[in-house]
Amino acid sequence: MIPLRDDNPTLGTSIATFIIIGANIAAWITVQGLGIEPALARSVCELGAIPGALLGSVPSGLAVPLGPGVECVVGRGGWHTLITSMFMHGGWFHILGNLWFLSVFGDNVEDAMGPVRFALFYLVCGVAAALAHVFTSPDSAVPVVGASGAIGGVMGAYAVLYPRAPVHVLVPLGFFFPRFVVP
């Protein structure tokens, strides 16, 4: 399901939501080169959170393939990547999807919390999601990027704060027929 909009009016301008969206777009343009190689791979490798690098469970210098002809060489992981990874994305659909969900749900949550508390809440949710990934995949050498964890926290807050607010969604109709093997 893809949220299109909600029928939940806001009282003021969503300053923090706009700043967070702007920061993601600025990083996508300036750091990730609009998703064009080699800027995309370099940004994911340098600014993505690599669990094994953060915990020291993966040897430094290990080359991890990210795609055809693209690899990431694991270095010493800096804990700052728990934050920088929230502003990196893996492609156009990734960034557009994340920012769309943030624009639909973030304004109301920010309205309830205020801009400063909302921005802190967003960052805490993103770091918590990255840490959850790090500690559930401690030996992974694959970088994790994206704002999905932070936005998941915002969506959870929206559901708690506005449980009866109507959200208009698009439901793409696709069918998946699993193949069953009869013994």
Q: Write the element-wise H/E pattern from the N-terminal end onward.
A: EHHHEEHHHHE
Query: What is the number of E strands?
Result: 4
How does the helix and strand content classify structurally?
A: mainly alpha
Which fold name is given in CATH as the topology? Rhomboid-like fold
Shape: elongated
Number of domains: 1
Question: CATH class, anyone?
Answer: Mainly Alpha
Annotation field: number of helices? 7
For the termini, the CA-CA separation is 35 Å
**Helix share, percent:** 40-55%
Rg calculated over all Cα atoms: 18 Å
Structure description:
The protein has a two-stranded antiparallel sheet. It has a two-stranded antiparallel ribbon with strand order 2-3. It has one domain: Rhomboid-like fold (Up-down Bundle). Helix content is 51%, strand content 10%. 32% of the residues are buried. Helix 5 crosses helix 6. The model has no long low-confidence stretch (mean pLDDT 91).
List the helices and strands and how they pair.
Layout: E1 2-6, H1 15-31, H2 39-47, H3 51-55, E2 63-67, E3 70-73, H4 81-84, H5 92-113, H6 115-136, H7 148-161, E4 167-170
Antiparallel strand pairs: 1-4, 2-3
Helix pairs in contact: 1-5, 1-6, 5-6, 5-7, 6-7
Question: What are the defining features of this structure?
Answer:
single chain, 183 residues, mainly alpha, Rhomboid-like fold, two-stranded antiparallel ribbon, two-stranded antiparallel sheet, 7 helices, 51% helix, elongated
